[in-house]
């Protein structure tokens, strides 16, 4: 059974990323730490990939994309397809290739990142989501490895990132519904650990508080980015409340919510989605949705990363991409 970097790190009492940096002969690692890691490697008979070590000082012209989806879900959600299209557009123009992998959970993502770093198969990494207390960001920062994030991290110092103004985007959508006369507005978001969900929920709450509406926790639900999960979340809302409108953080969630409304309610309930995926125009009725310009998110993310890799003299570390509500149906 082969020895892993994590096992070497445990014996040497250092982090796995430190082991990776020692293997890459990173000058920022002290000689004392290097000797400690080398000693652990020798004791465990651990031998780094020789080809990988020979590539330490070379570039691969390849960028890694870590997708937080299983293979079954990857091509179901158009958001990631649009992100990848934008990434590919700019990367191809600059002569770079994209290597992507998908994962089941955050810990697995960290393992894949460690593998890519150790093997030197990519020059940098793109993370398309940001979580609260994100393990991937922490790992890459500690390793001092080039990366960019799609989404605004909690601590942006020294990081490259691209995002929408998610607070303002949701705040504007809720205000739009309020101006149409709505007051009983429900919210269905993605995982509460995702920064995008946190920011959009804050925008929803602020807009409701501004008109003096007390937040009803029964009107707030979370869901996976799937139609089935959106359906279940909307059912939970309808079992305890009677909203006249609902805002969601993803079109797939909105599709499921629409199905639940059709089955469980005789009242018209306005729905607004996010991402403006192509299918929204073909729903019956067509779904209003916020266009977040997903392709631009991918395009400018890889642009920031490649600029860093090629030492371009640009001082831009982030981009905020505009959003726009695309109204496809009357709201009542």
Automatic annotation (TrEMBL):
The domain of life for this entry's organism is Bacteria
**GO terms, molecular function:** DNA-binding transcription factor activity; transcription cis-regulatory region binding
PROSITE patterns to which the protein is assigned, alphabetical: HTH_LACI_1, HTH_LACI_2
Q: What keyword terms does UniProt attach to this protein? A: DNA-binding, Transcription, Transcription regulation
Q: Which Gene3D superfamilies match?
A: 3.40.50.2300, lambda repressor-like DNA-binding domains
Query: Boundaries of each HTH lacI-type domain copy?
Result: 3-57
What name appears for this protein in its UniProt entry?
Answer: LacI family transcriptional regulator
Q: Which organism is it from?
A: Clostridium tagluense
